[in-house]
């Protein structure tokens, strides 16, 4: 039996859970702005650090469902604590890593495994520590902490790396984890449930999800379907598409296996009935959509600031900081000011706010653009993401009994990791493809570019142009012996192409945001915990629920009874 904490205790519990979410999300955003320095310190290459980032994402995405099941077996609070210990061991190993191999062990493996226990447990512990009417605010603040880590990561990473060492970030995470562990018993817990792990299902989920995530993450180097020049090919196609297809087939087989276990009376890793729950599926779809959009924004905006405007990591972080403040105000303020707000309406308004911010960015990508062009968009996007954060966590968990919250946490974090991977890969692919096409076209049509350069452009750079600053390009041209008007013309072509590429990248992000609106119809109209008639209306593009889906929402027993009648 759970107990609801006192007001002071609830505040402490929320601070601890939000701190855990912040630490889980901080790593990648810090590493993204410190890659060059980390690579130099460890005696490796940028490619090596990107491999570490990819594996970290891969371990988290593939182990989340299993991590949620382990949390059910050992208890939410204990899973949270064990995950924190593993994560701290990984952070300490990373902080003292002398080479890439130790970094892979500490960061990619240990921290990834720790996160797969921690993040589903956070979802379950919020449900255990807060009554239904206060969960929206609690989930909103916890989600805001994660999004703030993404936004503040470049600022923190840039400042610490510039004035000290990137290693202090990971050492600081160990300190934060120790503080959380010291107050862990302040949290209410749910007793562990006797269960067994479906090892076959766990292996299939790891292979299936791992193939999808890894295939998506490698699209920037290998291509989506057609292989890029110099990239490997399997039967004439990019390895990425084969990995994604393989992953989808294994996930299909995984779901068939889980259905078979249910029919035989076994214990599945994931109960398929959960995926027939309209409210849960609606919430998961929106989490996936939110993180696709969020990843696209956090991929493209820093590129504009750091490459086009040539701001350093600290200045880039400061320009993105308004998003963090707006997100926190929105995530905390909406549940407090309107505790019974219509979740579907709040999410739609949030998406429209994000869309408005992204469209301003699309219009702002012109040759005279400066850092001020991101100020209003950052506020609009922050308010919109905060609105989504204030509702989605409560919507997904309230759609199932509290005893299933850890399982839902695993699904929720799997969806967010898949969304983040796909968003970065999709927006990155569009950006680089547009950049390459624009540079080639610009060089071919510019009379100041010599004929020999034009002929090389159509053959040598068609495989992809790096997204580099004017300073970096000038240095490369000088090293190649190109100067004067020829160099100026090439630099101008590259500058125009960068803005075209960013406009297209933001345009794709806007389309993804509009697409997310089509999935809001499955969100409830009533706030979780509020009184009122059953909320069974569904106005998404698929129309109203069928009788079978409605029965499934009421539980497997009701679905079976309806099937017999």
Please give the structural blueprint.
Blueprint: H1 7-42, H2 46-74, H3 76-95, H4 100-129, H5 132-163, H6 167-182, H7 199-217, H8 219-222, H9 239-263, H10 278-308, H11 313-337, H12 343-364, H13 375-398, H14 405-445, H15 451-460, H16 470-479, H17 484-517, H18 547-553, H19 556-564
How far apart lie the N and C ends? 37 Å
Helicity level: over 70%
Mean pLDDT: 81
Number of strands: 0
Region (Disordered): 523-565
Protein name: MFS transporter
Membrane topology: Multi-pass membrane protein
Keywords: Membrane, Transmembrane, Transmembrane helix, Transport
Task: Please tell me about this protein's structure.
This protein has helices at 7-42, 46-74, 76-95, 100-129, 132-163, 167-182, 199-217, 219-222, 239-263, 278-308, 313-337, 343-364, 375-398, 405-445, 451-460, 470-479, 484-517, 547-553, 556-564. The chain is mostly helical and 565 residues long. Helix 3 packs antiparallel against helix 6 (167-182) and helix 7 packs parallel to helix 14. The chain is globular and about 75 Å long. The two termini are 37 Å apart. The model is unreliable at 1-8 and 540-565 (pLDDT under 50).
Short description:
With 565 residues, the protein is mainly α. The chain has helices at 7-42, 46-74, 76-95, 100-129, 132-163, 167-182, 199-217, 219-222, 239-263, 278-308, 313-337, 343-364, 375-398, 405-445, 451-460, 470-479, 484-517, 547-553, 556-564.
State the main characteristics.
single chain, 565 residues, mainly alpha, 19 helices, globular, disordered N terminus, disordered C terminus
């Amino acid at each position: 039996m759970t107990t609801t904490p006192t007001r002071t205790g609830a505040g402490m519990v929320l601070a601890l859970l939000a701190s855990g979410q912040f630490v889980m999300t901080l790593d990648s955003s810090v590493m993204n702005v410190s890659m060059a320095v980390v690579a130099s310190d460890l005696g490796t290459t940028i490619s090596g650090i990107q491999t570490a980032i990819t594996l970290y994402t891969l371990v988290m995405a593939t182990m989340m469902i299993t991590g949620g099941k382990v949390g059910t077996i050992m208890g939410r609070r204990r899973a949270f604590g064990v995950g924190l210990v593993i994560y701290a061991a990984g952070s300490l190993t990373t902080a003292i890593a002398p080479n890439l191999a130790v970094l892979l062990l500490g960061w990619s493996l240990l921290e990834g495994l720790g996160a797969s226990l921690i993040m589903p447990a956070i979802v379950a512990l919020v449900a255990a520590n807060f009554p239904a009417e206060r969960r929206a605010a609690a989930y909103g603040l916890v989600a805001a902490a994660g999004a703030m880590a993404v936004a503040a990561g470049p600022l923190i990473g840039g400042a610490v790396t510039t004035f000290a060492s990137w290693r202090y970030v990971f050492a600081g995470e160990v300190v934060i984890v120790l503080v959380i562990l010291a107050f862990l018993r302040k949290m209410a817990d749910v007793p562990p449930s006797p269960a067994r792990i479906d090892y076959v299902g766990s292996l299939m989920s790891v292979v299936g999800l791992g193939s999808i995530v890894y295939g998506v993450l490698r699209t920037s180097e290998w291509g989506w379907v057609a292989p890029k020049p110099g990239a490997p090919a399997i039967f004439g196609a990019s390895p990425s598409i084969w990995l994604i297809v393989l992953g989808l087939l294994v996930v299909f087989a995984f779901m068939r296996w889980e259905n078979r276990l249910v029919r035989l009376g076994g214990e599945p890793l994931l109960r398929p009935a959960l995926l027939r729950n309209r409210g849960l599926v609606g919430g998961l779809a929106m989490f996936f959509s939110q993180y696709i959009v969020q990843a696209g924004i956090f991929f493209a905006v820093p590129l504009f600031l750091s490459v086009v405007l040539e701001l350093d990591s600290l200045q880039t972080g400061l320009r993105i900081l308004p998003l963090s403040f707006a997100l926190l105000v929105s995530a905390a303020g909406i549940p407090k000011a309107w505790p019974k707000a219509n979740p579907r309406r709040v999410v739609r308004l949030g998406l429209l706010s994000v869309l408005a911010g992204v469209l301003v960015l699309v219009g702002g990508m012109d040759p005279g653009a400066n850092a001020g062009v991101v100020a209003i968009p950052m506020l609009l996007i922050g308010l919109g993401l905060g609105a989504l954060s204030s509702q989605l966590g409560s919507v997904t968990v309230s759609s199932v009994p509290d005893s299933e919250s850890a399982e839902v946490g695993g699904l929720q974090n799997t969806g967010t990791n898949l969304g983040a991977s796909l968003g970065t890969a999709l927006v990155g692919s569009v950006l680089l493809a547009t950049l390459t096409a624009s540079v080639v076209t610009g060089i071919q049509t510019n009379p100041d570019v010599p004929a020999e350069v034009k002929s090389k452009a159509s053959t040598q750079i068609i495989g992809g142009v790096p997204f580099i600053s004017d300073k970096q390009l000038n240095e490369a041209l000088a090293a190649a012996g190109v100067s004067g008007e020829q160099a100026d013309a090439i630099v101008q072509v590259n500058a125009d192409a960068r803005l075209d590429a960013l406009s297209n990248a933001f345009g794709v992000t806007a389309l993804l945001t509009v697409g997310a609106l089509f999935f809001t119809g499955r969100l409830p109209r009533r706030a979780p915990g509020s009184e009122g008639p059953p909320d069974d209306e569904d106005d998404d593009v698929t129309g109203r629920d069928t009788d079978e889906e409605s029965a499934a929402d009421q539980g497997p027993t009701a679905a079976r009874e309806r099937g017999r009648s």
